[in-house]
Design a protein that fits this description.
The structure holds 2 protein chains of 2 kinds.
Chain A (H helix, E strand, L loop, with lengths): L1 H15 L2 H27 L4 E7 L4 H12 L3 E5 L2 H9 L5 E5 L8 H4 L6 E5 L4 H24 L1 H17 L5 H20 L2 H23 L6 H31 L1 H6 L5 H31 L6 H23 L5 H19 L10 H6 L4 H13 L5 H30 L1
Parallel strand pairs in A: 1-2, 1-3
Antiparallel strand pairs in A: 3-4
Chain B lengths: L3 E10 L2 E11 L4 E5 L6 H8 L7 E6 L8 H5 L1 E4 L11 H11 L4 H14 L15 H10 L8 E5 L7 H16 L3 E6 L2 H7 L2 E6 L2 E7 H8 L3 E7 L6 H8 L2 E6 L2 E6 L2 H10 L4 E7 L3 H9 L6
Parallel strand pairs in B: 3-7, 3-8, 5-6, 6-7
Antiparallel strand pairs in B: 1-2, 1-4, 8-9, 10-12, 10-13, 11-12
Helix pairs in contact in B: 3-4, 8-11
Classes of the chains: A mainly alpha, B alpha/beta.
The complex binds adenosine-5'-triphosphate (ATP) and magnesium ion.
């Protein structure tokens, strides 16, 4: 044990004598966390200041209301223009899309439900599909908001009922029986609208029914509460990878400088030597993770739902990658080859496992390939403690897998070291 | 009794036969030299001796055990490798402390041994300096000192004086002679015949992985050194050259002006005889045979071309 500590202590001192190593082990993962945290933090709110041209060809009360609503949307920068200049701007890429409110938009519900002659048109820049899609969502939301506002206006609703009644009567297409059913529905709705108390009506519809639906979603939402909950496991994983790769290289360095051989002729086994390295690597990982967590808690206020499970997940992840790097370090003969092999294997695993692009953003086929990457299990194990609300039993799968891999990697590493000797 | 016995050791790397049937035995308290040019197989032999390489054939017996990786053997074995095997990032003291701990030292004994070895390396003054700030010779000295921490009974030194200035070299020689006086068994490899001649009780001449001969230096020179060349500038020219040649046990005796030249296999005897001849000489030059000649005669090449 004393020898193990001596080995680990020496490794730490040697490692931190090199400022470059300090950066890769501590600086890089922190930067990663900051950068990606910032990106996702932006994504969560949606793009801000999306420039959109609005052409109001209807000039009705409803279309005016609609434009005002769009303008109040924080994510949009709305320019009211005529049709031609609006379309030119889209072509030139100066705005992401143009929204055209056709004449007839304000005539009521038909605006929203008539598929043959849509009263709302979008012209978008083909290169900005993401933004256009996002915009469509916002338009729908605005429609819904405008409608809700209209619904709350009892008198407007009654006018609407009148229009529909006359439309139904004049349309010849319906069976007489059906026409009567609709007319009866409109009649009763009209009398409801006529008799109901203003406040009850508005309150019941606006604040009651609709908001209940929203609350429900909120309660069932068990995903990450802040984007940093996603980037934190990733940053920690990068810290572990970076740390492990650094140590993998240091093993080969010892072999090329001969200190490894000197250790080997001492009264100490190869397993001991490798374990000493692993211990130093593990200790460094733990310190980096502690630092990242401190950073996360203090600056980004990343909530960690179950610190204990998170710690377990992080530890298993460390062990797995420390083991892996111990193995990789025995595969090459020079620092360059091992350094290359280490980073290449880590990159592939990181890419597959969702340490670069979160798994949630990957296509399904990629997600199923990701099972072979320990990175995926590492992230899962850590997320289990941060926001996935894993039970200890649910933690068993990722953690167990990581530990099994760790032991297998380490044993293989020792075997390779023994063989490389002779 | 700590000894080294090597029998029919073989090692090949692909096509290259690095060590080819090497056998020797080193007794306790002996300094044994492995003398050979670059690529002769010295380092390969040492690596097999200390268990870093597995021999393709033959056996190694250290301190009575045939497995050099056995912990009991490791505990009595000290190796100073040919390359500097120390941590650049650590101080002189840090390096020794680390290897001391690995060798199983701790506490006061560790402190004492580290201090003693720093003295041996002549680096006590600079013990707090990082290795990376040291000169090549200083590193070399520390590299050797690192093998002595646990006072091993068997020592393997692989070219411990490479790149060391004459003063440091003398320091290393003194250290090695002191270790011998303490009864340690020492294997010393070098391609400097002067070193072998000065330090070693017995020497094996190694070339292309084969041992050409093993013996004391005197015997090797006697056997393979060939003749010594004597050149004397006389004040008076002798008359009877054949009689003189017989008296001096000289071969190829010749006179050129006042200068007498001859070769002899027994330089000491010839010189004594010369003194008794009452031939006054103004200058005398004796080129005695050395290990260089031994190597030349054994291989047809010079040790260092
Ligand atoms: N790991 C190796 N792989 C391939 N060939 C090797 C290896 N080690 C040594 N050799 C070859 O074995 C031969 C003996 O090498 P060795 O290092 O034992 O020589 P040496 O006597 O120590 O030389 P030097 O005085 O230069 O140190 C050389 O021809 C060398 O090229
Ligand atoms: Mg050598």
């Amino acid at each position: 044990m004393a020898k193990l500590m001596a080995l680990a202590g020496k490794d730490l001192r040697v490692l931190f004598a090199d400022k470059g190593n300090v950066f890769w082990v501590f600086g890089f993962p922190t930067l990663f966390a900051l950068l990606f945290g910032a990106i996702y933090a932006g994504a969560e709110k949606g793009p801000s200041g999306l420039e959109v041209a609005v052409v109001d060809e209807d000039q009705s009360e409803l279309s005016g209301l609609y434009v005002t609503h769009l303008q109040s949307e924080a994510a949009l920068k709305v320019l009211a223009l005529d049709r031609e200049p609006a379309l030119t701007r889209v072509r030139k890429g100066q705005v992401a899309a143009a929204v055209v409110l056709r004449p007839g938009f304000g005539e009521g519900f038909s605006t929203f439900f008539d598929a043959n002659d849509p009263k709302l048109q979008i012209a978008s820049d083909p290169g900005r599909k993401m933004e256009a899609a996002y915009l469509e969502g916002l338009l729908a939301k605005t429609q819904f908001e405008v409608l809700t506002q209209r619904f709350r206006d009892r008198q407007w609703m009654r006018g609407q009922m009148d229009t529909w009644r006359s439309q139904i009567k004049s349309t010849g297409g319906l069976l007489a029986a059906d026409t009567n059913v609709y007319l009866r529905l409109f009649d009763s709705l009209d009398s409801f609208l006529q008799d109901v108390n203003d406040r009850t009506y508005a309150g019941g519809l606006g604040n009651g029914m609709l908001n209940v639906a929203r609350l429900d979603v909120q309660r069932e939402y068990r995903g990450p509460r802040t984007p940093f909950q996603i980037t934190f496991p990733q940053a920690i994983l990068w810290a572990i990878l970076s740390c492990a790769a650094t140590f993998a290289i240091s093993i080969v360095r010892e072999r090329t400088t001969g200190t490894y051989q000197r250790l080997c002729v001492g009264p100490i086994s190869q397993a001991h030597i490798l374990a000493g390295k692993g211990l130093a690597c593990l200790a460094t990982c733990v310190v980096v993770i502690a630092l990242l967590i401190l950073l996360g808690r203090l600056i980004f206020r990343v909530p960690i739902e179950s610190p204990l499970l998170f710690a377990a997940g992080a530890l298993c992840t460390c062990l797995c990658f420390v083991g892996l790097m111990m193995l990789v370090s025995t595969l090459g003969k020079t620092e360059q080859s091992v350094g290359g092999a280490a980073w290449a294997s880590l990159m592939v695993m990181a890419m597959l496992g969702g340490a670069m692009v979160p798994l949630a953003f990957m296509p399904g086929s990629m997600r199923s390939i990701s099972h072979i990457s320990p990175v995926k299990w590492g992230i899962l194990a850590m997320e289990g403690g941060i926001w996935r609300h894993f039970s200890p039993a649910e933690m068993l799968l990722p953690c167990g897998l990581l530990l099994v891999l760790a032991v297998a990697f380490f044993a293989l590493g020792v075997l390779m070291l023994r063989r490389a000797q002779l | 009794m700590a000894t080294i016995v090597v029998e029919q050791l073989c090692k090949r790397f692909g096509e290259v036969v690095a060590v080819d049937g090497v056998s020797f035995a080193i007794g306790r308290g002996e300094i044994f030299g492995l003398l050979g040019p670059n690529g002769a197989g010295k380092t390969t032999t040492i690596n097999m001796l200390c268990g870093l390489l597995r021999p393709d054939g033959g056996t190694v017996t250290l301190d009575g055990r045939t497995d050099p990786t056995h912990p009991a053997v490791r505990a009595v074995l000290g190796v100073a490798p040919q390359s500097i095997a120390l941590y650049d990032e650590l101080t002189a003291q840090g390096n020794l402390e680390f290897f001391g701990r690995i060798a199983g030292l701790a506490g006061r004994r560790l402190k004492e041994r580290v201090a003693a070895c720093l003295d041996i390396a002549g680096l006590a003054q600079r013990r707090k300096d990082r290795l990376s700030t040291f000169s090549g010779g200083m590193k070399r000295r520390l590299n050797l000192a690192g093998a002595l921490l646990h006072e091993p009974a068997i020592l393997l030194f692989d070219e411990p004086t490479a790149g060391v200035d004459p003063q440091s070299r003398n320091l290393i020689f003194d250290t090695i002679l002191r270790l011998k006086a303490e009864g340690r068994t020492i294997l010393y490899t070098t391609h400097y015949m002067e070193e072998a001649q000065r330090l070693c009780d017995r020497v094996a001449i190694l070339d292309h992985g084969k041992i050409l001969d093993i013996d004391t230096i005197e015997n090797l020179i006697g056997r393979h050194g060939g003749v010594s060349h004597v050149e004397a500038e006389l004040s008076q020219v002798p008359d009877d050259l054949p009689a003189l040649a017989a008296r001096l046990a000289a071969e190829g005796l010749g006179l050129e002006g006042n200068t007498l030249r001859f070769q002899t296999r027994e330089p000491a005897r010839s010189l004594a005889a010369l003194n008794q001849c009452e031939l006054h000489y103004r200058a005398l030059k004796v080129d005695t045979a050395n290990l260089e000649d031994v190597f030349l005669n054994l291989t047809g090449r010079r040790l260092r071309d």
